[in-house]
Amino acid sequence: MTTDPLLLMGEVDAATSRLLRTAASFDTADLAAASLLPGWTRGHVLAHVARNADGFVNLLTAARTGAALPMYASLDARTADIEAGSSRPPAAHLDDLRRTADLFSEAVAAMPADAWAATVQARKGPWPAALLVWGRLREIEVHHLDLAADYRAADWSETFAHRLLREAASHHGMGPTPPSMVLRLDGSDHEVVIGERVNAPIVAGPAPDLAAWLIGRANGAPLSVTPDGPLPTPPEWI
């Protein structure tokens, strides 16, 4: 998948359209149903996706203007905003998702070329502005899964799944106690190694299923392990 933020906007727009179609299918009872995230309803997930767009607009503005603008006013404010928006009626969720998606697109379009070289202060620390569009795409695609609706990792593009898989593997590999495993993609000789290769189990399967399992969004049922045994337990993902 390209790292060019402007080229990635086509993927963001397509992912947003898919998410909006799913959100448009929800009635009030659907929104109150549990998501895949502990303690969050589907309404919480949709409110988070909208507020995340606001946060990314802040970061794009910081990159463009040089202002010390954080992603969120505070973690408490972020939590309160998500909670406050979670129980809105379906039409209000849709309006908010569309409005904030448009604001994100406008903020990307306003970026001069040199602003993409900036570093901004994301929720968990400094982050290259050039990765903000990828970050937004990742949020939309992963949280679409979290809605526990008719959307699966298999619906991700192969390029998105490959990039997410590599990112998650890199994250886990840099942890204090990285698990040792070899991830082998079906239909390919390509492997991703986490930790030590020697005596590490080989976990094989389609890239989307491997990626979803590695970030804790799937139980790994379609995956195989060599030698036979239980799947390793990936560390918590960001």
From TrEMBL:
The keyword Ribosomal protein does not apply. It holds the Pfam family MDMPI_C. Keywords: Isomerase, Pyruvate. It comes from the Bacteria. The keyword Isomerase applies. GO terms for molecular function: isomerase activity; metal ion binding. Residues 155-234 form the MDMPI C-terminal domain. Residues 13-148 form the Mycothiol-dependent maleylpyruvate isomerase metal-binding domain. SUPFAM superfamilies: DinB/YfiT-like putative metalloenzymes, SCP-like. This is Maleylpyruvate isomerase. It comes from Micromonospora arida.
